[in-house]
Amino acid sequence: MKTMVRNLSEEGSILGQYMAEIRDVNIQRDPIRFRTNLERIAEILGYEVSKKMNYEEIEVETPLGKSTEFKLKDEPVLITILRAGLAMHNGLLRTFDRSDSAFVSAYREHTSPEEFKIHVEYLAAPNLDDRVWVISDPMLATGRSMVNVYNALLKFGKPKKVYVLISIATPQAIELVQKKLPSDVEIWTGAIDAELTAESYIVPGLGDAGDLAYGVKV
Questions:
Q1: Per residue in 62-95, pLDDT tens?
Q2: 4-55+68-214: which CATH topology?
Q3: Which residues pair with 163 in a beta bridge?
């Protein structure tokens, strides 16, 4: 069984407006606007994913009576990849405001313009065993960072369920994740762009999400 992939751009919604703005070369120059749009995209992805989670009925008392509502059975752990993933993480924290967080630093070490290694440099996480993981990152270009991050997280426990939330993905990255991660992992993305350059940049993409959100790194 292949990993489930849900591309939210296949149908029209307000998400399309936020996707257009993070791509637009003029609008994306405003870092506050760029971060805000990533947060909004993450909130929408998080809301959609929340429909797949498990709930229990609870009774709450109102000023005028009692009401039966649904409450998450298992609060997910929100995991993000620094630094580009921080804005999406903030959006997800608004959706899942009782969740624990985990942070991973992963970076590319280029050995040539076309070749690079992925290093996981820093990882801070609570106990992850038998918990629902929600991993967010703006771009899923090659998928190698996601695979390395997933494997690094396993030392904190084995997940009950994994949702990968992405703003823009490529078919190549999705294929790698499907091959390397468990088949019940679900990928939820705002868009899938067809082209990946020899230097592993997504086209049309949006550029460097981390630089646009937090300034050009040196």
A1: 999 999 999 999 999 999 998 889 999 999 999 9
A2: Rossmann fold (3.40.50)
A3: 134, 186
